[in-house]
Design goal:
Structural class: alpha+beta
Number of helices: 19
Number of strands: 30
Distance between the termini: 89 Å
Strand order of the largest sheet: 18-21-22-26-25-24-23
Largest sheet: 7 strands, mixed
Shape: elongated
Strand content: 25-35%
Length: 669
């Protein structure tokens, strides 16, 4: 909002130094954009439509420099029923005022032209210029109709009818719909309420009789109409934020005075239609609450002084007031809003920089924050880069990751088809990121993301990762090797270890987006927590990834994993005092036998002395029968009470081998 110093000085006493005015008002919560040639440009926030005028800024200045607002000349607004006005949509237009004038259209005087140009408004003629001047001075938008161009000389405030159109003042034919408010004569629309007038009733050099409109329009209605028509005006900017419902008559009076002053018009009858007058809002204000919120005591006499200068009616005493809110302060509805007004003008710089005392203990930090930090550190240390993708994805991208027969959650009003549904998995976004990198020449891609995914059970947190290209960066000392299933399996085990979930179990996966035989479902302590494996090439190709290359992916349900970890019994163990005995064993088993089954049999058959178990070799080929494989395992035995003997360990090994032979037909090599 551009404020002309000369204009402001006519409304309230202010210093002659423009820079001082700009600085002091900016300290009250108004961002200063520029100061040049006696014009101050403030950025007005959306909650302060009252300051989209010189009068609004003058009220702020009156508090700062202690001067009362100066009276402004007003014209006649005598009520009469000569002007037929009918409101058919009172919910969209609670108040409509209009006044008749005999006019002589011509150029505006130089002082009026100069002020309009200073704030960036193009002068048109004396009638239109005065309506703009009043809007910029007191914040009340107005519109003038040529009375002789109205059919039936009647104004009807109603919703538009289906199929109606109106050529607005900018020369564009606009299609109207029943959600829009129009000002109409007896037969057709002549203006779009709160947005722009129509060319069929505009003021011209031939105009001799005028109806001047000054009204209040429902803010959401104006905002919706302005957006639907892609038509933003100075009037709509004010109406959609909340104009002053008590200002229409004040606007007419001020316009009448200006028109008569410049010899442009003679005022006649006024019609004010206000079927349901609004009662002013009253809010209680406590001095103790002010001190509590601001952290400092504001002198008791300063509170009514500040609020009264801003237009509030303040009654009461002993640091307890009843405050009547002026109609132009649409942003003030609660006690805290009044405290903000007091704080702004008492001075933010006078509020001590101290933390308020705590009445209750600080809340325990959300464990998910620490968990996400651990994941981020572990994955970046493992060579992955963090990706951040949208929670909204294309339906086609989401469908392969949904359970059969389950549709992804659709967005009611998506920005576009690319953001049509909520992601059922983090993998669609990672897949698109991999494709984006691959199209730009990056062959080796390792990405991860932690975030929310959405399904029939609601929102759940997960971590997903995607790996394409080589396992390790190229180096002269090693041969390049492509990523495989065991790399992503190891990544899942790394995450489980970092999050304290213990050993993972892997079983054959039936996930529709993974390649069967090169994928696995992941579980721990009997609970499923995710899956890893080779992404179906058809899905990758559909999202732009080369058909000849592979992407291995994994996704872990963090909420499921956390529930398992939380339920697990946490124990601490002393460092071992006695040495361990290690035994290696190689067995022949069926090629299709999962290693997890072998581990389960060993653990169930072994005594409590078995400390750890790990596979270290798998062999098929010469010397191994067809359909069989050689699996080598390393078993570590230890006692916390004594040193074990070889006989004890050999007995345990014999028991284990017999159990493997009975359960899986294993042969010891």
């Amino acid at each position: 909002m551009r404020i002309v110093h000369e204009w402001l000085a006519e409304l309230v006493d202010v210093p002659a130094d423009v820079e001082v005015i700009a600085h002091e008002i900016s300290l009250r919560g108004f961002e200063l954009a520029a100061v040049e040639h006696g014009v101050i440009d403030f950025e007005i926030t959306a909650n302060r439509p009252d300051c989209l005028s010189h009068l609004g800024i003058a009220r702020e200045a009156s508090v700062i420099w202690g001067g009362a607002l100066k009276p402004r000349p007003s014209g006649r607004v005598e009520s009469d029923s000569v002007i037929p006005v009918r409101i058919e949509a009172p919910d969209l237009c609670p108040r409509y005022s209009a006044q008749l004038f005999d006019v002589t259209v011509g150029p505006s005087p130089s002082w009026l032209v100069r002020r309009l140009e200073a704030v960036g408004v193009r002068p048109i003629n004396n009638i239109v210029d005065v309506t703009n001047y009043v809007m910029l001075e007191i914040g009340q938008p107005m519109h003038a109709f040529d009375l002789d161009k109205l059919q039936g000389a009647e104004l009807v405030i109603r919703r538009a009818r289906a199929g109606e159109t109106l050529r607005t003042l900018d020369g564009v034919d606009r299609a109207l719909d029943p959600e829009m408010l129009v000002i109409a004569d007896a037969q057709r629309p002549v203006a779009i309420g709160g947005v722009m007038g129509g060319a069929n009733s505009e003021i011209s050099e031939s105009t001799r009789r005028m109806v001047l409109e000054s009204a209040y329009f429902h803010p959401p209605s104006v905002r919706r109409t302005s957006k639907r028509l892609a038509l933003k005006t100075e009037a709509s900017t004010r109406f959609e934020r909340g104009a002053d419902i008590e200002a229409p008559l004040e606007g007419l009076a001020r316009a009448a005075a200006l028109l008569e002053k410049i010899g442009a018009a003679t005022a006649h009858a006024t019609r004010d239609v206000y079927p349901s007058p609004r009662r002013p809002l009253e809010v209680s204000l406590r001095g103790s609450r002010i001190a509590r919120v601001l952290g400092t005591v504001v002198p008791e006499d300063d509170v009514p002084r500040i609020l009264s200068r801003l237009g509030f009616l303040v009654t009461g005493q002993d640091a307890s007031w009843q405050v009547t809110v002026p109609s132009y302060r649409v942003d003030v509805t609660r006690e805290i809003d009044l405290i903000e007004e007091v704080g702004r003008h008492h001075g933010f710089d006078r509020i001590p920089v101290t933390f308020p005392p705590l009445d209750v203990p600080q809340a325990v930090p959300d464990p998910r924050i620490e968990r996400d930090g651990k994941i981020r550190r572990a994955m970046t240390a493992a060579g992955f880069s963090e990706s951040m993708t949208f929670a909204f994805v294309e339906r086609a991208a989401a469908l392969p990751f949904c359970r059969p027969g389950v549709e992804p959650a659709a967005i009611e009003n998506p920005l576009s088809e690319k953001f049509a549904v909520l992601r059922p998995s983090l993998l669609p976004g990672l897949l698109d990121s991999c494709s984006h990198n691959r199209r730009r020449g990056r062959k080796d891609v390792r990405l991860f993301e932690s975030g929310s995914r959405f399904g029939p059970s609601g929102e759940r947190r997960a971590v997903a990762f995607a790996w394409a290209g080589e396992r390790t960066p190229g180096h002269w000392s090693t041969q390049p090797a492509p990523v495989d299933f065991f790399d992503v399996k190891g990544t899942a085990e790394l995450l489980a270890d970092v999050l304290g979930a213990g050993p993972l179990d892997f079983s054959t996966s039936a996930a529709p987006f993974l390649v069967r035989g090169r994928s696995a479902d992941v579980g721990t302590r009997g609970y499923p927590v995710g899956s890893v494996g080779l992404l179906d090439p058809a899905i990758a190709t559909a999202r732009g990834f080369p058909a000849s290359e592979e992407i291995y992916v994994g996704e872990i349900d963090l909420d499921a994993l956390a529930s398992v970890v939380d339920a697990a019994e946490l124990r601490t163990h002393a460092l071992p005092k006695f040495p361990a005995i290690v035994r290696d064993v190689s067995i022949l088993v069926a090629q299709a036998l999962p290693a997890a089954a072998v581990r389960g049999t060993i653990r169930s058959a072994a005594p409590a002395l078995l400390e750890s178990l790990v596979e270290f070799d798998r062999y098929q080929g010469k010397g191994v029968p067809e359909g069989r494989m050689s699996l080598s395992l390393r078993l570590t035995f230890r006692s916390s009470e004594r040193t074990l003997t070889d006989d004890e360990v050999e007995a345990a090994m014999s028991t284990i081998v017999e159990a493997l032979k009975g359960a899986h037909g294993a042969e010891r090599r």
